[in-house]
Amino acid sequence: MELPSKHLQEAVDQFSTLPGIGRRTALRLAMYLLRQPAEEVEMFGQTFKDLHRQINFCEKCHNITEEELCLICVAPKRDQQQICVVEDIRDIIAIENTSQYFGVYHVLGGVISPMDGIGPEDLNINSLLHRIEAEGAREIIMALSTTMEGDTTNFYLFKRLKDNDVSITTLARGVAIGDELEYTDAVTLGRSIANRLPYESSLAR
Question: pLDDT tier at 121 (50, 70, 90 boundaries)?
Answer without folding.
Answer: very high
